[in-house]
Write a structure and sequence with these properties.
two-stranded antiparallel sheet, Beta-Lactamase, alpha+beta, five-stranded mixed β-sheet
């Protein structure tokens, strides 16, 4: 008599590889689907593979529904933001002088965009409010920001808060700094600081598309009012 061979124990990876090579396996062996069981993800009771797959599909459907709701909410929020932003720009364009333009910015950012502090700092604009000479040593605290010529969001150092917001800087926990710069070689006109008492309101990962555009508009209009 021939010797009985021991049954070969398949490795788990071999089973997975086989099923990947034969994705129609269960369609050819439908009865097996009802015999296979898995623990229920919530109560641990045994359920069939079909039941588990139905549950997975339900979860995926709910996740897609939640994502759609989030996208819809984001779209509505952005639409409202764009409307307020457009009105702000139109008000800036209609301003008759620098002081009026700055007041528009302060009021709009505080009322419509919920900023707790908004300040403008101008460089070498003698006779203008909030002007500072470009050689002032305190500007060294903003050297990297001005050299980078792009908006920065997050937590500022004490000396930065003091220069931008004065005594109000003691309450500012996060801020946005918008350099008013044009081109690579043109000297920066100044910078705008937007502050919040909420430490999480402005952070490095937040989008800056709107504030960058606002900075470009402010730069052009401020320069026009200053005759530059």
């Amino acid at each position: 008599m021939s010797e009985m061979k021991e049954p070969v124990e398949l490795d788990e990876r071999e089973v997975v590889a086989y099923l990947k090579r034969h994705p129609d396996f269960f369609s050819r062996n439908e009865g097996l689907l009802l015999e296979l069981t898995l623990p229920h993800p919530q109560n641990g009771q045994a359920i069939s593979l079909v039941e588990r797959q139905v549950g997975v599909l339900r979860e995926q459907k709910q996740q897609l529904r939640d994502q759609l709701q989030q996208l819809t909410l984001a779209a509505r929020t952005n639409e409202q933001l764009m409307g307020r932003f457009q009105q702000l720009i139109l008000s800036l364009i209609d301003s008759d002088n620098l002081s009026e333009a700055v007041n528009y910015i302060r009021d709009a950012l505080r009322e419509d965009f919920h900023a707790d502090a908004v300040e403008l700092l101008l460089f070498d604009c003698e006779g203008e409010e909030n002007s500072i000479t470009s050689g002032d040593g305190r500007l060294g605290a903003f050297e990297r920001i001005l050299e980078g010529r792009r908006t920065v969001c997050g937590h500022l150092r004490a000396e930065q808060l003091d220069l931008l917001f004065g005594t109000a800087g003691n309450d500012i926990a996060s801020a946005v700094v918008i350099p008013l710069c044009e081109g690579e070689s043109e000297p920066c006109l100044g910078m705008v600081g937007i502050g919040s008492i909420d430490a999480n309101r402005y952070h490095p990962q937040m989008g800056t598309m709107f504030v960058n555009h606002l900075g470009a508009v402010m730069n052009r209009i401020f320069r026009a009012h200053l005759g530059l």
